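Sequence only, no structure available. Ideas?
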Amino acid sequence: MYFSLRKIVYMKLLKTSFFTALSTFVKLGSSFVVGKIIAIYIGPNGIALLGQLQNFITIAQHLSCGAITAGVVKYTSEYKNDVAQLSRVHSAALFICIVSSIISAIAILLLNKQLSEFLLKSPDYSSIFVVFSCTLIFFALNSILISILNGFQEVKKYVIVHIASSLTGLVLTAGLVVFMGVYGALLSCVLAQSFVFFITLLFTLKSNWFNINNFMAGLSSKYFKKLGKYSLMAIISAIMAPIAQIIVRNHIAENLSMDAAGYWQGVWRICDLYLMVITSSLAVYYLPRLSELKLNHELKKEILSGYKIITPIIIVLALLIFFLKDFIILILFSKEFLPMAELFQFQLIGSVFKILAWLLSFVMVAKAMMKKFIITEVVFSITFILLNLYFVKEFGAIGATQAYAANYFLYFIVMFFLFRNILFLRGTQHATE
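Reply:
I predicted one. Tokens follow.
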């Protein structure tokens, strides 16, 4: 019986990894094609403007759904067999989503000219923000519905929606860029998720669990507090990492050169691309799976199963990238980026420790360990910065990757220490809520 259950778990994780990998590769392929089209038709200036808008959209998306998507995944998974509690969670999530998106939309609408001038360096694009304010509700609702699909572990639907999102963005961007140039590229960013929402809604309506009454079960402060924990965790996570990267990038540029900062950014991007395959599987499979487990011995089995499957995969991928680094650089960048080849070794080592640590840190998210999550996010963002300040000064550009490896090694050690009671558990105990 034990081996049959383990086999089911392995097959489920591998199946999830396959589907999420497929979704990730479609996203990467679409991004590559879109990038080429944009580069040809609107040039470097247009790409810079598009990056500015995309960063703003990411922030607005978090605010418009109250940054509660991780909480929706957790409690959907945890209460999926309890219709009463599930209805209250979804009702609270919908209310938070609608109120947050309306407030965010009004702010964007009122500040459309200022946002255009600040982000896009011209008042000519203010209408983009007007359109965005009108479509923001669809961004928010789409995020909530996707989180519910994830919570119910409807992997195929979840992946299909993400693939549809990538392809919709590709078609929309290509058409608008060709006919409208820079303005079309910007417009495609604020319209894409509106189209995707209706695709997500279509799949949601076909799900057995869907019932409109489940989103109208009344409001309870208990469930607002539950989701609120995730809101704070998501906001901290969304803010700390980008700020740390900005500080490190500026430090490298000021103390070494802009080229050195560019090499570091290139290595970071390549590692992020291959990590996306693994992290997507973790987000789709592990978060809802860990959320539904009630006993620590069950958590231990799930975590150890994850290590057995994920560890060899992440190590093999890291080795492949290391030995093929020159080829990868030439494919994704150009000959002038070849000097960044020497930065891969420590960045890849750090990436391995990052995934090993995340297999444990997902428990904090799954069990709403807000204090531990926030403290570790803040502390290791600060140590990442401090280690970089030292290593870059002592060893140059490669020091930034050494700092990355050192930081995630320390993060892994801390995660191991925090969850040692689960990893070395004997017998059965209830999981920490």
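The longest helix spans residues 2-64.
Hope that gets you unstuck.
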